[in-house]
């Protein structure tokens, strides 16, 4: 049973124990949840170990999946924490509403989207998912249920959004959707020769479009280094109001014994992708799933990385440093001989999240996926961390499975404020590895004084 409860990156051990949501709720309401014994587990789309708890059990939230209500006038929807984003889209679409922020997969739970304060292709306009959370109910190990909003229990509200499930068990939430003319997207692809040309295009693209994201040919070097495609999109004035069936017909039915996404494959794939997508320089209308969730069309695609899984590295660096730092990050990966299947570059805007800890901040964010090749890959990821932190940037914790405590502390200096509000019954492998290590060192230093 526990084998089902893995991270999406498949590079970390599965949860040793899992319990159902109803059982965890009973424990919490009775005040019988032990220290570090619980952690909510949504639909397993986190890449690292923020969804794992070797010290106790993960709580399977997927049975709590009801949509409780929807106001078609205001766009406010209330649902259980285990409801999937795909179900929310399907419920609201006929009324002309769509989530204001969606990540790269629709198979995330509502609770997971809040706990990770996820972002999408329109951060420059809408900020993070947490910007659109009206309220939620939170059950803690003191046996109390808290209603949290910007005005009710505001400290718990801020700590839970982006709090990676450490403040208690989110039971349900109300979110504010945005009205759209249709679900369809009018998409345009703009090729760019190098990163300098991308940066020249990026701000204007954000100002003119709801959505903007760039794909980078990470393997291209020399004069072709940094080439890619800038995709922009807006909801079509006339199009579908019916959600498509979630998921595609394709799947990876078993775990290959080796990494299929090797350098030779990626070289061919990048060339083909750039040729195919680069032809769509004239705006064209298409379904929302292909624009927002292209990888959802292949079930269990993460298996293609082989039995050792993958590591994802997502960084953000200040805007003034990006023209130097982003090329450095890509060059470091090329020097290490590591190919990234998914290389995405986006511009974050200045919309502030209500979260105490939130990864997005003004600047540029680069996402890279690497097959897990052991020590060589870990060394590269450490170098990417070093470059990012030296530039005043941050590394995304809910995409991480190995960052050092010092990297986390430099990325999120306010982490002690979350630790102060962490429910003692809740723990994750990520928090134990990073904040737990920092805390232990601090206690040792204080004892020595």
Automatic annotation (TrEMBL):
Keywords: FAD, Flavoprotein, Oxidoreductase. Residues 8-180 form the FAD-binding PCMH-type domain. Gene3D superfamilies: 3.30.465.10, Uridine Diphospho-n-acetylenolpyruvylglucosamine Reductase, domain 2 (3.30.43.10). Belongs to the oxygen-dependent FAD-linked oxidoreductase family. This is FAD-binding oxidoreductase.
């Amino acid at each position: 049973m526990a084998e089902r409860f893995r991270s999406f990156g498949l590079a970390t051990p599965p949860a040793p124990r899992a319990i159902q949501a109803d059982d965890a709720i009973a424990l919490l309401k009775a005040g019988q949840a032990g220290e570090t014994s619980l952690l909510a587990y949504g639909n397993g789309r986190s890449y690292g170990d923020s969804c794992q708890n070797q010290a106790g059990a993960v709580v399977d939230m997927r049975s709590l999946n009801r949509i409780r209500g929807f106001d078609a006038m205001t766009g406010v929807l209330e649902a259980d924490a285990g409801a999937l984003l795909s179900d929310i889209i399907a419920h609201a679409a006929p009324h002309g509403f769509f989530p204001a922020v969606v990540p790269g997969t629709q198979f995330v739970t509502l609770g997971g989207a809040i706990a990770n304060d996820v972002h999408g292709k329109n951060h420059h306009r809408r900020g993070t998912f947490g910007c659109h959370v009206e309220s939620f109910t939170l059950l803690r190990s003191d046996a109390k249920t808290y209603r949290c909003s910007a005005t009710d229990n505001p400290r718990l509200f801020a700590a839970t959004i982006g709090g990676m499930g450490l403040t208690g068990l989110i039971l349900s939430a109300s979110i504010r959707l945005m009205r759209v003319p249709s679900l369809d997207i009018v998409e345009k692809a703009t090729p760019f020769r190098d990163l300098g040309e991308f940066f020249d295009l990026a701000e204007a693209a954000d100002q003119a479009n709801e959505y903007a994201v760039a794909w980078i040919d990470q393997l291209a070097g020399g004069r072709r280094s940094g080439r890619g495609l800038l995709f922009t999109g807006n909801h079509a004035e006339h199009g579908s109001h019916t959600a498509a069936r979630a998921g595609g017909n394709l799947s990876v039915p078993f775990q290959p014994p080796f990494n299929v996404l090797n350098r030779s494959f990626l070289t061919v794939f990048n060339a083909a992708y750039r040729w195919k997508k680069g032809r769509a320089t004239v705006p064209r209308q298409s379904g929302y799933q292909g624009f927002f969730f292209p990888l959802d069309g292949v079930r269990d695609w993460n298996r293609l990385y082989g039995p050792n899984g993958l590591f994802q590295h997502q960084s953000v660096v200040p805007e003034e440093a990006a023209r130097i730092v982003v090329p450095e990050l890509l060059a470091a990966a090329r020097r290490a001989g590591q190919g990234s299947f998914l290389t995405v570059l986006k511009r974050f805007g200045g919309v502030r999240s209500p979260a105490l800890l939130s990864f997005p901040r003004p600047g540029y964010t680069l996402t890279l996926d690497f097959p897990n090749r052991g020590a060589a890959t870990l060394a590269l990821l450490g170098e990417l961390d070093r470059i990012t932190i030296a530039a005043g940037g941050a590394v995304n914790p809910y995409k991480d499975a190995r960052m050092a405590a010092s990297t986390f502390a430099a990325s999120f200096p306010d982490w002690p404020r979350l630790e102060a509000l962490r429910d003692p019954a809740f723990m994750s492998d990520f928090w134990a590895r990073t904040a737990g290590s920092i805390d232990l060192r601090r206690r040792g230093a204080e004892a020595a004084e």
